[in-house]
Amino acid sequence: MKKFLLLSFFSCFLFSFANAQATLSATEKKLSDNLCACLSKVDLEQITDKPSAEKAVVDCFSQQLSLMVQYAEEKNVEISDQAAMKKVGEEVAKNLFKDNCQSFIALSVKMAKANEAGSLAGTTEGTLKRIDTKDFNYFILTDDKNNEKSFIWLR
């Protein structure tokens, strides 16, 4: 009986906590709605690369700066604290995803695809430091700043 009561209490606590986390404040909801409305006005056909996608998102965030400041104050975040403001921005982005803001999702996908494409091509210069034989053969280069970069040796 004690286990059942304890389990019931714990379940109620978790459900109430989850429900409290799901509700947005008025400022948070207004910010999310305004950002989504702004982003839906963006012509997604004109955005072909990561910088233009980032510019569109930053422009919409800039238009809602007063709401961002108000939201940061609600969260007790100092505007000059860059790390904390980055977390606030991430929370707003999560809310845009939760609200199913299609234009934000489309812009995020374009930015992610640009990251993938950029990471597949490139050149690196350095000095061969060593060759590691693990599950694959890796060769390790050291650049002029003494940073090591590891590459899989395919052929």
Describe how the helices and strands are arranged.
Blueprint: H1 2-22, H2 26-40, H3 50-63, H4 65-74, H5 82-98, H6 102-120, E1 127-133, E2 137-142, E3 148-152
Antiparallel strand pairs: 1-2, 2-3
Helix pairs in contact: 2-4, 2-5, 3-6
Number of strands: 3
Tell me the strand order in the biggest sheet: 1-2-3
Pick out the low-confidence regions.
Answer: 1-20
**Count of runs of 4 or more consecutive helical residues:** 6
The overall average pLDDT, rounded, is 77
Can you put this structure into words, describing what you see?
The chain is mainly α and 155 residues long. The chain is 62% helix and 12% strand. It has 6 helices and 3 strands. It has a 3-stranded antiparallel β-sheet, with no helix packed on it. Strand 1 and strand 2 form a beta hairpin. It starts with a helix and ends with a strand. Mean pLDDT is 77; it is low at 1-20.
Summarize the structure.
Helices cover 62% and strands 12% of the residues. With 155 residues, the protein is mainly α. It has a 3-stranded antiparallel β-sheet with strand order 1-2-3, with no helix packed on it.
Features of this protein?
single chain; 155 residues; mainly alpha; three-stranded antiparallel beta sheet; 6 helices; 12% strand; elongated; disordered N terminus
